[in-house]
Amino acid sequence: MSGRLLVGLLLLLLWEMAARTLAGTHLLAGPVDVAGWLFQHRGLVGRALAVTAGEAALGLLLGTLAAVLLAALAVLAPRRVAAVISLLMLFLFCLPLVATGPLLRVLWGPGLGPQVTLAALAVTFTSYLALLVGLRAAPPVWLDLVRSYGRGRLSELWHVRARGALPYVMAGLQIAAPAAFLGALVGEFTGAERGLGLLVIRALRELDAPATWGLATVAAGVTVAAHAAIAAVGRRLQAEPPLILAAAPGRLEGPLPVLAALALGLFLWAGAMEAAGLSPFFAKRPWDVWAFLFTDPEAMAHRAELALALAQTLRVAVPGYLAGLLAGAGLAALVILAPRAEAAVLPVAVALRAIPIVTTAPLLVLALGRGPAGTVTIVAVMIFFPTLVACLQGMRQTPRAVLDLFESHAAGRGARLLHAQLPAMLPAFFASARMAVPAAILAATTAEWLATGTGLGALMAVTASTSAYGMLWSATLVIALAACLAWGALGLLERAVLSRTAAEQLA
Amino acid sequence: MAEAPPEVTCQGLARTYGAGPDAVEAVRPLTLTFAAGQTTALVGPSGCGKSTLLRMIAGLEEPSAGSVGIGGQPPLAVRRRGGLSVAFQEAALLPWRTVEGNVALALRLARRPADPAAVAGLIRLVGLEGFERRRPAELSGGMRQRAAIARCLVTAPGLLLLDEPFGSVDELTRLRLNLDLPRLWQERGTTTILVTHSVSEAVLLSDRVLVLSPRPAAVVADIPVRLPRPRRAAMVRETRFLDLVDEIAAGLSEGGAAADRPLAAQ
């Protein structure tokens, strides 16, 4: 404990020194200034935090409820129906918050609606995925036991699967709580009257370094605390989170589930808009987007504008994504070579993984400027911590007997890493790489929106403020589909690699 | 209420996995009768399909051909009223439930009213008194199997299907369980079908031993065991016990030799 305290103090000291040294060239604020600002504005920050935390908690509750219902349905339904549900959930998860935020603001009007909806959307998919893996993880013999008394799938779900999934639920919640906070913050960016997000936007506009750093510190502290609190509850419930959450995607068994998900998605989209009687001026239907991109006299110009923005975004998102993955996996490999370092790095990485992008993005923008280097770094940082944690935990999965075998041959650390630990890491690495796709796009578009003024993020922000809803809906759709495709492509690669290295991981 | 022990019949029961040239025949068409109230052991080499046969009798696996009758009824109907219990290779205790909770679960699954007295009585009978509130992780392998057997018996089933229930414990514990536990169901005259790859366990527990050939399973010997009950530890050293073990072992090796010969020669 005293060691950790010492490391904490050392970090604070370094932060303060960096702030003082670079104060002339970079917008940095040290812990002394930050603490001073926070103390001075404690009432304001406290009230804003209460608002945002309340929205996040409500979103977390609603998103988790939706995830529970859908995961139960997916477990009870035949595999193909479950695949359709999963695909629709993936699409929702891939919708960029930067675009859904303004759209929800228009659809909901003023009030809490967009913040709570975004918080719920941000958690539903990860919680759904964790629950689904957990519900399906019940050993076959437990299910046989239930069946041996002539009971069906509902009894399996109630007596065996639901309680067995608890560790997965807790792990999902650990990821979901910070995500809900992030969703609420983005919702507030879109024009809320109160909340922490509003203060962040103001501080950024005024280039107020102590305020930006102070608010980022508060947001980071809240998410890390939520993460730790859920972990503590999990330990109390004797439900230690499992190490690998996102199982490799199942085989789709032909194009039918994809087509069905597409048709159902379009139907739900159009149906919801029509049922709510929303004006086609801002609530575009599928056919409006189709017209905007393909049949409108200006369709070609629309497509060109969209393609240019997409290219700009990909130019920062792809290098940032790859850099984050490589750095995360690389550092994990280095750390595992020095087991003492692992004990120090893992808790810090787990805590930092919980900090949402929105709180760090403004800091990096302030520190690195508004060029592409800043955006690439933001994306890389966003990917880096989850990858590092997943890879470290994956390498820890190396069976003891395999390590003993290497030991018995007096093999070096390098050989052990290359032949035993890296292959053991692959399932966790791929799961993390897939989850990182939407995260990379979110990070890139958020940075573009808040800072660089280029790419899809900026395009979506501009079109939202100029009421160019045709472009906003089209951009949202294009980017979500691109993320889904990247996810699918990674899934294929994952299946191909794991079928050689970890066939038991494939359903 | 205890169920009357049923007679179990298998009519042309067979199981094939896959289709076409890749098809694997696990169980050849079998026609068998298991007498009411008797304990029958199915012995055979690993992977010969004996567990598959047991699972088909329980209705946990669909046969490719043939049918099963338990007292003239299909397995599902019997399962639904809690008329049969299965003890699996693993104890299959739910880790979040106590010993008591795991035993009581069978009553809930069988849609029977809660019966704390019956649960406590069985826990005492299997020798787990004082461990009612413990969770499976706090028990040894043998204790877990005892709890699993208590769970099997709490519904007082007419048919008991045991799939190598003592396979995962050490030899000494296994012998103790073999001597202690069968009395609980044999006194009630429960029809019992036991899968095991231990020849001495088969002789010690059963009234009849069916020797199965390597995959696909076919009966190569049907050996009655006429040893007095209750069976005791000393019996395993008696000549008639050893003769039976030898007879079954011979059946096993003949079955294996028959399976090793080319098909045309059989």
From TrEMBL, chain A:
Bilayer topology: Multi-pass membrane protein
A Pfam family hit: BPD_transp_1
Residue ranges of the TM segments: 56-77, 84-104, 116-143, 164-186, 213-233, 254-272, 318-337, 344-367, 373-392, 426-451, 471-493
Keyword Membrane set for record: yes
Domain ABC transmembrane type-1: 45-234, 310-494
Coiled-coil ranges per UniProt: none
Broad class of the protein's primary localization: membrane
Swiss-Prot/TrEMBL keywords: Cell membrane, Membrane, Transmembrane, Transmembrane helix, Transport
InterPro entries for this protein: MetI-like, MetI-like_sf
Locations listed in the record: Cell membrane
Keyword Transport found: yes
Gene3D superfamilies, per the entry: MetI-like (1.10.3720.10)
Family: Belongs to the binding-protein-dependent transport system permease family.
UniProt protein name: ABC-type nitrate/sulfonate/bicarbonate transport system permease component
Organism this protein belongs to: Cereibacter johrii
From TrEMBL, chain B:
CDD domains from the UniProt entry: ABC_NrtD_SsuB_transporters
Gene3D superfamilies: P-loop containing nucleotide triphosphate hydrolases
Pfam families noted in UniProt: ABC_tran
Keywords: ATP-binding, Nucleotide-binding, Transport
Molecular function terms, GO-annotated: ATP binding
Protein family per UniProt: Belongs to the ABC transporter superfamily.
Superkingdom: Bacteria
InterPro entries documented for this protein: AAA+_ATPase, ABC_transporter-like_ATP-bd, ABC_transporter-like_CS, ABC_transporter_ATP-bind, P-loop_NTPase
Name under which the protein is recorded: NitT/TauT family transport system ATP-binding protein
SUPFAM superfamilies in alphabetical order: P-loop containing nucleoside triphosphate hydrolases
Coiled coil: none
Domain ABC transporter: 8-239
